[in-house]
């Protein structure tokens, strides 16, 4: 065997992710990236500054098949693999984490549980409209007093003639103020106090979704509560095919996987911005990029992004082989979010005073990633999940 060919280093793709993808995956990636750059990028700064989410974004994503990408075509989805879903998340979050959150919730937290745990009637009623973006969905698990400990939820479902009466409050719910479909989780007395999922619809008596205002992160994503004051639903609202925390965790595993890809998109945006800024900006008669400290920071960024993308690809390939190891998703979500946040903060610093300007975007990414590092399992809680898997001992 002769000497290997020596190729030039690609600062944007050192391990050649491009050629590890199938032709279909590259096509999906290009579609998502073109949409994100042409349609989302021009409006993101004003949306963030005004704390505004444009409802038509969901319809635009739906038209392109970016919602519910892994749901079979029979139910309106694109029937794509999990790597393709990850590439969509990466492309959208390269523009803004809030836009990716809206897409992720619709796909992983609303469409997935209806497909995986719902009846055939529920699938046919809701999934095609959600896939097209004609309907917007939200996912109600977190409560004011139960974040990392969803098993302590207070929302209750009481059996009544023909259905259930649900009462409780959910907090920090992406999309809820504009949602048509609400997938909510409650402890059901009729099922021995076990957690069950229910599909609620906008306009039901006792159901409201007030907006949470004055967020300092994810401002281009709309967030609210779900308030259920004796909401009465029929038996057909119950998701029949799952009980316990297995249901919401099954959804969250898919969403956390997407976050593993998406957070790297935000990191890539910050890395590219820091590289270009330090090449263009001259101080003391030479580009900032010629300084050792700047090059060290860029080297650290590209290292973490490259390894993070390889990890995301590996988990995605396993999912496409129908193999799920939840702890590897915890590892992916924890690592990639934490590293992306570090990269965004350092990129902000490398921009100097300009780094706090909305025009340069890196501080918006940094502020968003504070939330991404927290939601769907905090950095520390995922460490404890990994610790339990390593030692066999639970620390929580």
Can you give a write-up of this model?
The protein is of the alpha+beta class and 396 residues long. Helix content is 49%, strand content 14%. It contains ten helices and nine strands. The protein is globular.
Question: What is the fold's blueprint, element by element?
Answer:
Layout: H1 23-50, H2 56-63, H3 82-93, H4 97-117, H5 120-132, E1 137-140, E2 156-160, E3 163-174, E4 181-188, E5 194-201, E6 207-208, E7 223-234, H6 246-280, E8 282-283, E9 286-287, H7 292-320, H8 326-350, H9 362-372, H10 379-391
Parallel strand pairs: 1-4, 2-4
Antiparallel strand pairs: 2-3, 3-7, 4-5, 6-7, 8-9
Helix pairs in contact: 1-3, 3-4, 3-6, 4-5, 4-6, 6-7, 6-8, 6-9, 7-8, 8-9, 8-10
* SSE-based structural type: alpha+beta
Mean pLDDT: 97
Largest sheet: 7 strands, mixed
Shape: globular
Q: What percent of residues are in strands?
A: 5-15%
Q: How large, in whole angstroms, is the Cα Rg?
A: 22 Å
Percent range for helical residues? 40-55%
Distance between the termini: 53 Å
Order of helices and strands: HHHHHEEEEEEEHEEHHHH
Number of β-strand runs: 9
Number of helices: 10
Low-confidence stretches: none
Short note summarizing the structure:
This protein has 396 residues and is an alpha+beta fold. It is built from ten helices and nine strands.
